[in-house]
Amino acid sequence: MEADMNAHAASMSLPYAEVDVRFSERPEGSTSKLSTVGDGWRILRRLLRLFRDWRPLLTFSVAGLLTILVAVVVLIPVLVDYAETGLVARQPTLIVAGAAIALGFGLVATGMILDRITRLRLEMARLLYLALPSSSPHGGGPPP
Description:
Blueprint: H1 2-12, H2 36-54, H3 56-85, H4 91-130
Helix pairs in contact: 2-3, 3-4
């Protein structure tokens, strides 16, 4: 896909060039093969996957921090009741909020691990690219 090629070229700082192409109008009586909603939804899902794959720390940190924030908001009334009465009246809420906080920290940790893996994979691809013989008349490395 075009988005994949653009993401890969941008992440590797590869050279690129625009190529002019000639477009002509659609023949009379023909219809588009594209579906606005269906194809738009597929493109949006692909862009979100690309974002997750290339920026895992940001993706998982946002999800983790939102999970922690919601859990803390739910947990505050339980803690206020405990401070006033010395009893935990809503134990299931306490357990679920604690589990959600643990899940949030797990999501952030997952993002950190995946970010490191993504950086290592990108560095390996960059080293392989630099090891290619040059097609430049000046020699030494990939073309500018």
